[in-house]
Each structure stands twice: as C-alpha cells, then as structure tokens.
Amino acid sequence: MRWGKCLAIFGPILFAIFVDGCGPGRTSRYRRHQPRTPLVRKQHEPSDCHEYGLCAAGLPEGPITLADWESNTKRSHQLVPLYDDNIIITDEEGTGVDRMMTQ
Q1: DSSP assignment letter at 34
Q2: What is the rounded CA–CA span in Å between residue 27 and residue 33?
Q3: What is the pLDDT of residues 48-80, one digit of tens each?
Q4: Which GO terms of type biological process are on file (predicted)?
Q5: Predicted pLDDT at 56
C-alpha cells in the first residue's frame, strides 16, 4: 500500500524528469525574430512568387551563344545595351558584349 502511494506521487515526477531530456531544450519556447530590413523606394517583392519560378522569369529560352551573336539571328536583335550606374559590369574583353541584355 505504501509503495503504491509513493509510486503515485513520485512516478509522474520521475517520468517528467526523464522525458524532459528528450525535448529540444530551453530555447524552443522563445524564438527571436530577425530584424527586418526596410525596402528601398519603389522596390517590390512578390509574396506569392518564388525567385526562380515561372511566374517571376517566364520559361527559359536557353543561353545566347556566340554563334547567335555573330549570325545576327532574331534573338541577337532583341538584346539592348544596359547603361545603369547602379549595376557594375566587368567587361574583361573590352568588347561591350557583357552589357547586352534582353528586355
């Protein structure tokens, strides 16, 4: 009879001590929020579209090769030079081909 009462009192306490070791620890209750950086003026980030998804960039058309550039195909005529001061483009060859981008 005594052991039954002792087991009824100390059993849940011992069970809680042993099971507590299986948990994620003290830090699982409170999670720090990362500081949010403000958006730049006129910056837009779509919340329903992944960065590399089809809704962001469209279907891939493949790379523009040097053969496309030299043969004056339709794809090479769609390219326009980019002269933006905010974007740094390294032109190692000095030909200016690195600035050509699609619209």
Answers
A1: P
A2: 13
A3: 666 667 776 667 777 777 777 777 777 777 788
A4: cell-cell signaling
A5: 66
Q: Distance (Å, rounded) from C-alpha 22 to C-alpha 16?
A: 10
What Cα–Cα distance (Å) separates residue 86 from each residue in 24, 51, 82, 83, 90? 46, 21, 11, 9, 13
Q: How far apart (Å, rounded) are the C-alpha atoms in residues 83 and 96? A: 11
Q: For residue 37, what are its two tokens? A: 């950086």
- Owning domain of residue 102: 61-103
Q: Is residue 73 part of a domain?
A: yes
What local confidence, expressed as pLDDT, does residue 51 receive?
66
Query: How many domains are there within the chain?
Result: 1
In a domain, 40, yes or no: no
